[in-house]
Specification:
The complex is a heterodimer.
Chain A: H1 2-6, H2 12-22, E1 34-42, E2 52-61, E3 64-75, H3 82-88, E4 98-99, H4 101-112, E5 116-119, H5 122-135, E6 145-147, H6 148-155, H7 167-174, H8 184-202, H9 210-214
Parallel strand pairs in A: 1-5, 3-4, 5-6
Antiparallel strand pairs in A: 1-2, 2-3
Helix pairs in contact in A: 6-8, 7-8
Chain B: H1 4-13, H2 24-32, E1 35-39, E2 44-46, E3 55-61, E4 64-70, E5 73-80, E6 85-86, H3 89-93, E7 100-103, E8 107-113, H4 114-123, H5 125-136, H6 157-162, E9 174-175, E10 179-180, H7 186-196, E11 200-205, E12 208-214, H8 215-222, E13 243-244, H9 250-260, E14 264-268, E15 277-282, H10 283-289, H11 294-303, H12 307-326, H13 331-357, E16 365-369, H14 371-374, E17 386-390, H15 398-419, E18 436-438, H16 439-451, H17 455-464, E19 468-472, H18 474-490, H19 493-503, E20 526-528, H20 529-547, H21 555-565, H22 570-594, E21 600-602, H23 608-631
Parallel strand pairs in B: 10-11, 13-14, 17-18
Antiparallel strand pairs in B: 1-8, 2-7, 3-6, 3-8, 4-5, 4-7, 9-15, 11-12, 14-15, 16-17, 16-19, 20-21
Helix pairs in contact in B: 1-2, 4-5, 9-13, 11-12, 11-13, 12-13, 12-15, 13-15, 16-18, 19-20, 20-21, 20-22, 20-23, 21-22, 22-23
Classes of the chains: A alpha/beta, B alpha+beta.
C-alpha cells in the first residue's frame, strides 16, 4: 500500500499530470471550466491485447466548441487488426503522420491540462488509455470524467439502469448530424454536440450544477 | 497538424458567400478559429443594443430570427437559415447590435472571429462588394438613414475597390490644352495646331472656352472651300463647347460624347462653359482606356452601308455587355451604353430605309421606342416595340402619307429583325396600321385609354406610356408627352387603375423566404423574374412618375428623380432602385448564360449567393406595392 503512494520513479510527464489535476482550481463556474471531449479509435475492444490508433479531442469552454483548441494524433501500429480497418479506416501504413504511443500520450496529457474529460462510454477510452500509460510508466488518469451516456440517462427517465445507449442512438434522439463517424476527432465533435445539447437540457431553468453533473458518473467505475 | 473538424467546417462554409470567394488556404485558417455554438429554440443569441460579440455567425444547422423593438413592440425582421450570415454589420461598424437574434428552432452556429475578417475585407474586393451589396439592399432595415454612406466605417479599402469601376474611374484628359483667341485666322490656328501636334484647338477668351476647332472642321469646312483659310476662327468653330467639371468619370465622358455627338469635351474649373478652361478630353483619350469601346461601335454604325454590318456590330455589342458584366461595371452604365447603341442602329436603319424608299418623308415624323426599349433598360436583344407618329395632314393627303410611313416602317422593322430584334408577338410595331398614326390620332388614342381604362387598354397604356424619342422630329414627341400628362392630370383615378393592374402580380415574397414559383405549365418550378420581380418595380416607378408629371422613362432615373421629389421617402425609393439594378443584372446574366430572355429562373439550380441576392430584392417590391395601394386608393376600385 505504502509503496504505491511513495513511488518515485514516475516519469516527468506523469508527475506533471498529477500535479496539474491536483492544483486545478475547482469547479466554481461552469462557464469557466474547460471540457475536453475525446474519442479514441482502437484495433479492437480487448483492453489487454488491443491498441489505440488515434486520439481526437476538442475543447468546450463557455458552451462553445473551440475548434482552435482541438487535438488529433495518429499512433504507429505494432499490433494490427485488419478486421477493424473497415470501421476506422486507419491502415497500418496510411498517409497520416504517425507518432509512437509514448509520444502520443505525452502530447495528449499536455493538451488535456486540467480539463474535465467528456466522452461517450468514457470508461472504454480511459481504460485503453490507462493501459497504454502503464506501459510507459504512468497510471490511471486523474482528471474528472463525464460520460454523455450517463448524462443522458440522468435526463431521460425510464430504463436508465439497464440500457447502454450507443453514440448513434443518442445522435438520433438529440438530432445530431453525423459527419465523420468513426474518425476520432469526428466522433469527438459529435460527442461535443451531444454534450452541448445535454447540458442545455440539464441546466434548464437553473444554473448548471457541475457537481450534480459529475454525480451522473456513479456508474462509471462500477 | 491535421484538424478534421476544421476541414469539415471548411467544407461547409466554402459553398456560401462570401466564403466562396476566398482562397482555400485562407478559409482553412478561418475554419481553424471557429467557435461552434448550440442554442435551443427561442434562446437569445444577442439582444438589440448589446455590445457586439467578437464573432459573427454563419448558421450551420437550423434557423434564427432577427427582431427589433420599436416603441416596445417586437417586430420580426427576418428569418435566416443554413448558410446565412448575421451579426456582422455591428462588428464592422463598431456599434451595438441594431437588432436582436434568437434561435427560431434549435440551431448550430459557427462563430467566426471578426479580427480575421478585417484583413479579408481589405484583400478580397469581391468579399467587400458582396458585403456592401448585402448591406445596401439589406432586408434588415432598408429605411435606416443613419447608416447611409458609412457601411464600412473603418475600412477605407472599399474605396479602392470602387475605383476599378468605370462609373467612378476618373477620365484622364489633356491638361493645358492648346488655345487661341477669336481674332486669329484659321490659317494661324492650323499653324499652332501643327506645331503643337494636336488635333483640336480651343477658341477662348481669357481662358473661357468659346468654341472648338478640330481636324474634322478643317476637312469639312475649309477643304471643301466653304470657308477661306484667311477667315476668322470664329467662323468655323463649334460653339458652345460641351463642358464638364474636373472630376469627370470615364462613364460620364463616354456618355457625354455619345449623347452630344462630339469628339471632344472641355474640362473647366466649375464645369460650366463660363469658367476657366483646364483641359480637353478627346474620344481617343477614352479609346485608350477601353479597347472594345462603345464609341468605336457607334462610329461603325454611323457608316454602316448595309444591314449585315449592323447585325455584326450588334453581336459585338452583346459581347460588350457580357464583358461589362464580368467586370462588374454598374448596370446603370451598361444599360445607357447599350441603349445608345440600339438607338444608333435604329437611326441608321431608318436612314437606310428612307434611301430605299427613293423619296423623303412627305411630312415630319417621329420614330418611337416603347416598353423596355423606351425605358432604355434593354440589355439582351428582345422583341421590338416601336411606333410612329406623323404630323397632322389634311384629310385628302392622309391615305398617301399613311401609306408612305407604313411602307417605311415595314422596311425598318424588317431590318431590325435582320439585325436580331425579333418581331413583337403582340404586333406592337410601327408597321402595324394601329401604331402608325398622326399626332391627332395618337392624342385621341391616349385620351380614350385614360378615360375608359378597361383591362386591355391599361395593358396598352403601360407599354405606350414609356414611349421614347428615337429619331425624327423632336417637337412631335414633346407634343405627345405633354398631352399624355395633361389627360392624366384631369383623371387621377386612372393611376388607381394602373396601380391595381400592377398589384395583380403578387409580391414575390411568400411565407418568409419561400419563393413563389409558377404553379403549372412549361415553366413549372421556375420563378418568373420578369413578371414577379422586375415588372412591379418598373410599373410602380411609372405610376409615381406620371403622378408627379416627370418626363423620364428610365426606371432607375425615375426612382432617382422620385428621391428628390419626395425627400421624405428617399430611402424607400433608393431601396427600389437598388433592387431593380440587382434584378436587371441578374436577369441579364441568366439570359446570357442560357441564351434566352432571362425571364424564368430555376429556383432549384440557384446558388445560395443568388438566392440571397434575389431575396434581398423582394422586400422593396412588397413595400412599394403596399405604397401603391394606399397612395392611389386602389381599394376604391372593384
Amino acid at each position: 500500500m505504502f509503496k504505491i503512494f511513495k513511488r518515485k520513479n514516475h516519469p516527468a510527464f506523469w508527475k506533471k499530470h498529477i500535479e496539474t489535476v491536483r492544483n486545478c482550481k475547482g469547479y466554481n463556474s461552469f462557464e469557466d471550466i474547460r471540457f475536453v471531449v475525446l474519442d479514441t479509435e482502437t484495433t479492437g475492444f480487448d483492453y489487454d491485447n488491443d491498441r489505440i490508433l488515434c486520439i481526437g479531442a476538442v475543447a468546450i469552454k463557455n458552451n462553445k466548441i473551440q475548434v482552435s483548441d482541438s487535438f488529433e494524433v495518429y499512433i504507429k501500429q505494432d499490433i494490427f487488426n485488419k478486421e477493424t480497418v473497415k470501421i476506422h479506416g486507419i491502415r497500418r501504413d496510411g498517409t497520416e503522420v504517425k507518432v509512437s504511443e509514448e509520444e502520443a500520450l505525452i502530447q495528449f496529457l499536455e493538451y488535456l491540462d486540467d480539463a474535465i474529460i467528456v466522452a461517450h462510454h468514457t470508461k472504454f477510452d480511459i481504460t485503453m488509455m490507462t493501459k497504454a500509460l502503464r506501459r510507459i510508466g504512468g497510471g490511471t488518469i486523474r482528471s474528472k470524467q463525464l460520460d454523455t451516456n450517463f448524462i443522458h440517462k440522468k435526463l431521460a427517465a425510464g430504463d436508465r439502469f439497464k440500457k447502454m445507449y450507443s453514440l448513434d442512438e443518442l445522435c438520433a434522439i438529440y438530432n445530431v448530424k453525423k459527419h465523420d463517424r468513426h474518425t476520432a476527432l469526428g466522433d469527438a465533435l459529435i460527442t461535443a454536440y451531444l454534450f452541448l445539447k445535454l447540458t442545455y437540457k440539464y441546466k434548464k431553468n437553473n444554473v448548471l450544477d457541475i457537481e450534480g453533473l459529475i454525480k451522473t458518473n456513479y456508474q462509471l467505475y462500477s | 497538424m491535421k484538424n478534421t473538424i476544421a476541414e469539415r467546417i471548411y467544407d461547409f462554409i466554402k459553398d456560401y458567400p462570401p466564403f466562396n470567394l476566398i482562397s482555400k488556404q485562407t478559409l482553412l485558417e478561418i475554419a481553424k478559429s471557429v467557435e461552434i455554438q448550440y442554442f435551443e429554440k427561442d434562446t437569445i443569441i444577442f439582444n438589440q443594443d448589446d455590445i457586439p460579440h467578437e464573432h459573427f455567425y454563419i448558421i450551420n444547422q437550423g434557423s434564427i430570427r432577427l427582431y427589433r423593438f420599436v416603441n416596445n413592440e417586437k417586430q420580426n425582421l427576418d428569418i435566416c437559415d443554413e448558410g446565412d450570415l448575421f451579426g456582422l454589420r455591428p462588428l464592422i461598424m463598431n456599434e451595438n447590435y441594431l437588432m436582436g437574434a434568437s434561435a427560431n428552432e434549435e440551431v448550430i452556429l459557427y462563430g467566426i472571429p471578426i479580427s480575421l475578417f478585417h484583413d479579408i475585407i481589405a484583400n478580397y474586393p469581391k468579399v467587400s462588394q458582396f458585403l456592401l451589396a448585402s448591406f445596401a439592399t439589406n432586408t434588415r432595415d432598408p429605411f435606416s438613414d443613419k447608416h447611409k454612406g458609412k457601411l464600412f466605417a473603418n475600412v477605407a479599402s472599399v474605396q479602392k475597390v470602387e475605383n476599378s469601376f468605370a462609373e467612378v474611374q476618373s477620365a484622364k484628359y489633356t491638361k493645358n490644352p492648346v488655345m487661341c483667341t477669336e481674332e486669329i485666322s484659321i490659317k494661324e490656328a492650323c499653324q499652332i495646331m501643327s506645331t503643337a501636334k494636336v488635333n483640336s484647338i480651343i477658341v477662348a477668351d481669357n481662358k473661357i472656352p468659346m468654341g472648338i476647332i478640330t481636324d474634322k472642321d478643317i476637312r469639312i469646312k475649309i477643304g471643301t472651300g466653304l470657308f477661306l483659310i484667311e477667315d476668322k476662327v470664329s467662323a468655323i468653330m463649334t460653339s458652345p463647347v460641351i463642358t464638364f467639371p474636373e472630376k469627370i468619370t470615364v462613364a460620364e465622358a463616354q456618355i457625354a460624347i455619345l449623347k452630344h455627338k462630339v469628339s471632344h469635351i472641355c474640362i473647366t474649373k466649375d464645369g460650366t462653359n463660363t469658367s476657366e478652361l483646364i483641359g480637353v478630353l478627346g474620344d481617343h483619350d477614352l479609346n485608350i482606356i477601353q479597347g472594345n469601346n462603345p464609341i468605336f461601335l457607334i462610329r461603325e454604325i454611323k457608316y454602316a452601308k448595309d444591314v449585315e454590318t449592323l447585325r455584326y456590330i450588334r453581336v459585338q455589342a452583346s459581347e460588350l455587355t457580357s464583358g461589362y458584366l464580368e467586370q462588374e461595371i454598374p448596370i446603370y452604365f451598361i444599360t445607357k451604353v447599350i441603349s445608345e447603341i440600339n438607338t444608333a442602329i435604329t437611326k441608321r436603319i431608318i436612314k437606310l430605309s428612307i434611301a430605299e424608299m427613293g423619296e423623303q418623308p412627305p411630312v415630319a415624323y417621329t420614330w418611337l421606342a416603347m416598353g423596355s426599349q423606351g425605358r432604355k433598360e434593354q440589355l439582351l436583344i428582345t422583341d421590338q416595340d416601336n411606333a410612329l407618329v406623323f404630323e397632322n395632314v389634311p384629310e385628302e393627303d392622309y391615305p398617301k402619307v399613311k401609306e408612305y410611313f407604313l411602307n417605311l416602317s415595314t422596311k425598318v422593322t424588317e431590318k431590325l429583325n435582320t439585325v436580331g430584334f425579333e418581331y413583337c408577338p403582340a404586333n406592337i410595331m410601327a408597321s402595324n396600321p394601329k401604331w402608325c398614326n398622326s399626332l391627332k390620332e395618337w392624342k385621341k388614342q391616349f385620351k380614350d385609354w385614360v378615360n375608359h381604362p378597361t383591362s386591355d387598354k391599361i395593358l396598352l397604356s403601360i407599354i405606350f406610356f414609356d414611349f421614347e424619342y428615337i429619331d425624327g422630329d423632336k417637337d412631335l414627341y414633346n407634343q405627345m408627352s405633354d398631352s399624355v400628362f395633361r389627360y392624366i392630370k384631369d383623371k387621377e383615378i386612372f393611376l388607381s387603375f394602373l396601380s391595381k393592374a400592377t398589384l395583380n402580380n403578387p409580391a414575390p415574397l411568400g411565407f418568409f423566404k419561400q419563393f413563389l414559383v409558377e404553379q403549372d405549365g412549361e415553366h413549372k418550378d421556375q420563378f418568373d423574374i420578369k413578371s414577379r420581380a422586375i415588372r412591379p418595380l418598373v410599373d410602380a416607378a411609372r405610376i409615381f412618375s406620371l403622378h408627379h408629371n416627370l418626363k423620364i422613362n428610365n426606371t432607375i432615373a425615375r426612382y432617382e428623380k422620385l428621391m428628390e421629389v419626395e425627400p421624405q421617402n428617399r430611402d424607400f425609393f433608393e431601396s427600389c432602385a437598388n433592387a431593380f439594378k440587382i434584378l436587371l443584372q441578374f436577369r441579364t446574366l441568366q439570359g446570357l448564360a442560357n441564351n434566352d430572355g432571362g425571364k424564368f429562373v430555376d429556383i432549384n439550380n440557384l446558388s445560395k449567393a443568388d438566392r440571397l441576392k434575389l431575396k434581398s430584392c423582394f422586400k422593396p417590391i412588397k413595400n412599394i406595392q403596399e405604397s401603391l395601394t394606399t397612395r392611389f386608393n386602389v381599394a376604391l376600385i372593384q
